[in-house]
Records
---
Amino acid sequence: MAEIQTIAAASRERAGKGTARAARRAGQIPAVIYGNKEEPLLITVDRVRLEQELGKSGFFIRLLDVEVDGNTHRVLPRDTQFHPVTDRPLHVDFLRYSADRKLTVEIPVQFLNEDESPGLKTGGVLNVVRHTIEVLCVADAIPEGFEIDLTGLEVGDSIHASALTLTEGVELTITDRDFTIATIAAPTIMTVEEEEEDLEGEEGLEGEEGVEGEEGAEGAEGAEGGEDDKSEGGE
């Protein structure tokens, strides 16, 4: 497990939009610590410090220590609200740590050794079906991520859940099937040369049709002229 980081916070007495706006204007983000059958604790955290943690990978799967008025609360981030325009955090929910409570969390997937995959080296494409895998485990057992080795995979090969290495105490939430995580797909985009050849072929066909059309028209005109000559001769 990664080293647990500490965030300083201050308690706040009241909830509400007015109080929250005032906190944000002062560079603080409203937050709440809840869970373990205890009363929710309303707090504010420094926006810059919070954004530092948000910028790191796996924010929602890392335990944090939040210090409030001399007391340390071990928590797991569970939800963050962001401004729809600026994308800055507006509010954070922290769940109190419990050693025996199982949680549902999304674990990121990392693909290794792409240059060792014959399928990718010959133009295949890594089609990622699931960027994260949902698991059930206690907070102390949350994996930092799943690593999948692509060595030796060819075009048409698939990677399924059975390829994952699960540590003790970690369970997949989907257990009724061996779901697909990624596939090595064949390329679907034609090269520029192939597109040009197709266009040239179409232009050639159009040209031939045009010549045939002109010849047909000339023949028809000739036939009409012959009929006129015959009519004149008969008169």
---
Amino acid sequence: GLDRLRVAAIAAALHGIAARRAADPDKLAPAGWRNVHYADQQLVYKLGDSEIQIGYRPTGDGFTFAIGGKPTPVTRYGVDGDRVWFVEHGGHRRQARVTSAGDRIYVLSEGALLALAEQPRFPDPTAQTVAGALTAPMPGKVVKVLVEPGQAVAAGSPLLVLEAMKMEHTVRAADAGTVRAVHVAVGDQVDADRLLAVVTA
């Protein structure tokens, strides 16, 4: 039913958040953080022919998830390998096992196995509001990454190279500063306005 689907979607989202944090422990901002405080992070999962859209934002030690416009506060949660548990507002503890293969996420929860397909994340319209954010001027493929986090750069320094429509486009630092984060790797396909790197003074 809908409740089982909601639990599975939240478990999949928490598993994904933990995986992204583990892959990028030096990220300055916690998962879900936005300095535009009202903009939820968005995830979209597909189950068969239906799409489940989830918004989430960090609240206290947990997150508030919005599924179909209905908020579900999660006050505490834990991810240990494929085991995910979370406590909903009101004290209901939910448990699931989550494994992923490619873009498929398999969630075993309350006796049912659901196969969700995570849809590509939307270009992030709030990316430009991050201080020092450099975004993709057009859709393309990352062919060179010339800097790494912690590196000092001068204004105009080349940071990375995108290939779009058979032409190379160099993304340069707007101002002198330090590279705080690089969000892409060589070979990545990026959408216009995708956050590529952050350089701050």
